[in-house]
């Protein structure tokens, strides 16, 4: 490979370092938009048109590997998880039709915009109360004091998880992120596997409790639909809870953290939404495009195919880098520029595309909109604390600042 003009590009690919991957993404789009990563054993796809085409073709590119660990599960951790029925567990993102179609149709009957809208007053009250706890301090760390807990409380409202369990479930969810998308030692895997088992048992118990005492929440609705004759098992309901307790808050925490950081770093954008809150919804779309919570997702080729002129053998794993696609100049003019008035910002691929498009996207955007509306109203003179270094958790897919220090007078 030393004579290959793209050898340097491949060598610069650091899949677990998301501090600032965007210059590499740009180089890859221009020089080798589809390449093979020896470290991951995946073909990496970086252009918008190619990624959208893969998302659209679920028959050729299955999502069954979407939540498989990048690194092989160590034997002891795997045996432990198998003993508790956790191998092969998935909500919707890792399923394919017909199971995906059947379960998504039933879940959509309960997990929908009308239910989200009912929560809006409670979300706003929660945001105001949380901001009120630090409003007089003149400084705050926005991830720990706002972005981390608010989405958890919201998704737990939806799923009927009591407030006193929030911190414990958040901790279990972090273990799932690291186990699936991180780069762990065998000993670390065993610790996180034990946490994931506790998390899975908790979700199964949520379903059991709904059979004993019906409730007005997502698992309660799914148990009711099951009783009415809709084809969904207790294990599938528990798997949906397992998935949503993670995806429903981890990514929204990331979106809120990214939004606050990007808007404050681009001071004119923050001042614009303070002056005109009607700009906030499109500003959120631009944050999702420019600095997405999930920068990559996965597929597996079921048959020989071609992507971007590159032959993809059957059985190959694909890493679809939406964080690159979202800045592709072929789709977004001046894609490397942050512009909250961009007219086609909504065309980003941060929530996927096709049959697996994220069901919870309206809720994530609603929560972020409310947080920005209340922050700009209550603390309009918010600014980034100078000279801070932003850190990002090492993994392949979930990109958000670990902390965002702010101050005001």
From TrEMBL:
Signal peptide, first to last residue: none
Keyword Heme part of the UniProt annotation: yes
Annotated TM spans: none
Pfam families in alphabetical order: p450 (PF00067)
Keyword terms, alphabetized: Heme, Iron, Metal-binding, Monooxygenase, Oxidoreductase
Family annotation (InterPro entries): Cyt_P450, Cyt_P450_B, Cyt_P450_CS, Cyt_P450_sf
GO molecular-function term, one example from the UniProt record: monooxygenase activity
Domain of life: Bacteria
Family: Belongs to the cytochrome P450 family.
Entry protein name: Cytochrome P450
Species this protein is from: Rudanella paleaurantiibacter
């Amino acid at each position: 490979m030393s004579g290959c003009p793209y050898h340097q590009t491949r060598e610069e690919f650091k899949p677990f370092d998301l501090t600032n991957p965007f210059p590499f993404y740009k180089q890859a789009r221009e020089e080798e938009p589809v390449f093979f990563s020896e470290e991951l054993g995946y073909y990496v796809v970086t252009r918008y048109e190619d990624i959208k085409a893969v998302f659209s073709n679920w028959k050729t590119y299955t999502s069954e590997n979407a939540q498989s660990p990048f690194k092989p599960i160590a034997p002891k951790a795997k045996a432990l998880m198998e003993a508790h029925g956790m191998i092969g567990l998935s909500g919707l993102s890792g399923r394919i039709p017909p199971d995906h179609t059947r379960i998504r149709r039933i879940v959509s009957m309960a997990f929908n915009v009308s239910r989200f809208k009912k929560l809006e007053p409670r979300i706003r009250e929660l945001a105001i109360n949380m901001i009120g706890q630090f409003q007089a301090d003149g400084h705050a760390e926005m991830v720990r004091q706002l972005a981390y807990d608010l989405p958890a409380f919201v998704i737990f409202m939806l799923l009927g998880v009591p407030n006193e369990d929030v911190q414990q479930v958040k901790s279990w969810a972090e273990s799932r992120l690291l186990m699936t998308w991180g780069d762990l030692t065998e000993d670390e895997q065993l610790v996180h596997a034990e946490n994931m088992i506790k998390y899975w048992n908790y979700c199964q118990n949520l379903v059991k409790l709904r059979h004993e005492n019906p409730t007005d929440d997502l698992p309660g609705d799914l148990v009711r639909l099951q009783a009415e004759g809709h084809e969904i098992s207790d294990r599938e309901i528990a798997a949906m809870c397992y998935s949503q307790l993670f995806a429903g808050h981890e990514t929204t925490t990331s979106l809120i953290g990214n939004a606050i950081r990007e808007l404050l770093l681009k001071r004119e954008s923050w001042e614009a939404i303070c002056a005109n809150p009607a700009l906030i919804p499109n500003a959120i779309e631009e944050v999702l495009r420019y600095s997405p919570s999930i920068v990559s997702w996965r597929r597996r080729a079921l048959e020989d195919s071609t992507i971007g002129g590159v032959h993809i053998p059957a059985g190959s794993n694909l890493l679809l880098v939406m964080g690159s696609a979202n800045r592709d100049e072929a789709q977004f003019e001046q894609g490397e520029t942050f512009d909250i008035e961009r007219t086609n910002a909504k065309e980003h691929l941060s929530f996927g595309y096709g049959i697996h498009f994220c069901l919870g996207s309206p809720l994530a955007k609603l929560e972020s909109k409310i947080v920005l509306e209340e922050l700009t109203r209550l603390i309009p003179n918010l600014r980034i604390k100078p000279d801070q270094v932003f850190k990002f958790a090492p993994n392949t897919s979930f990109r958000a600042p670990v902390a965002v220090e702010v101050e005001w007078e």
